[in-house]
Design brief:
Dehydroquinate synthase-like, alpha domain, six-stranded parallel sheet, three-stranded mixed sheet, alpha/beta, Rossmann fold
Amino acid sequence: MIDSILQRHDPRMFLVPERTLVGDGSSMASGRALDDLGCSPGPVAIVADASVLRLGSADAILESIRAHGYGAEVLAGVTGEPTVDDAREAVEAVRRVDPVAVVGIGGGSALDLAKFVALVAPRDEPVDAYFGVRDDVARRVKLVAIPTTAGTGSEATRIAMLSANKRKTIVNSAALVPDLVLLDPKLVMSLPGPVTASTGLDALCHAIEALLSTNRSPLSIADSRQGLRMVAQSLVRSFDRPEDIEARRGVLYGAHFAGRGLNAGVVLGHSVGYTIANRVTVAHGISCAIALPYCIRYARPVAEDTLTEIARDVTGHPDVDGLIAWIHDVNRTLGVPRDFVAVGISRESVADMAIECSEKYPRPNNPVPFEPGRLAAMYEAMAEGDLASAPFN
């Protein structure tokens, strides 16, 4: 995988946050970190997960910000994946405050909304003008991301996800990459089991899919592999022993590496995950984890060498079948259903899902092109939960 990528010389952009403060209690330095970014005293817009605010997990962060002369204005308590309407309301709230910085505190939904409003609020264009790819704009306020879950990697990426009419809307801009990230394992110690599982699985999917992407580069490969190893070693342990801070660190830091690896982009698994989430309410990481073994099987005809290296990183053995078995074991341990029916999707939906996957969520960077017949066969296999029966090799 690495040898082959070094033979190519075409340019690849690799964007990461300007600064990252890592370590236990790092979020307590939020105020000083804003100073270090060169922020002038003034209001700071806080976009936070509602549960983080309710449980008091953000209190010390807000105190640190205020202690350094900033006004911490809590503008949004995010309760789920932000909708386009949520984004409009948050943008208007931030415009009224006119902040020197936007700070996102929470899981991927809160961070995505914070990233979006930091880009859009200082401008006059309507919210929907920023859907899709917008690399023609620069952000005008500082952006800080403080993740309180271990998995989404949103703090490291140029992507923000919104939903509209139960469909995913993607915002893609280099200006969404934060100026500063605070990675504090103390903030993820109290994550409940289902959140530990779903966000950690999201990180696992990010790492593997980015390694399969044809847009990968030596830099994205290095970060994705490091993230993969850390998450693989720590995820089940953090689920079984939530008080184990070393395991929590492993998933949090591994998820961040995997997020950096997303410069290569995700592939088929996330497209399938979106088609699941468009029909039933299921955590994003769970929907992607259901798809992951099938994503691997779909790519295998042309990606055997890459998958062999992934297998070696995860299991210690260059055995792709062993990798798939390991993923099934992890999914089972973390409570991931094996088929669509178990999450409430009827078998009659799979044909439409295959079409939607290809037409609405294409992945030109997938190692094997999306082909309607192969996708349909894959979706049929997923409806049965029987990977071995899938006729798309």
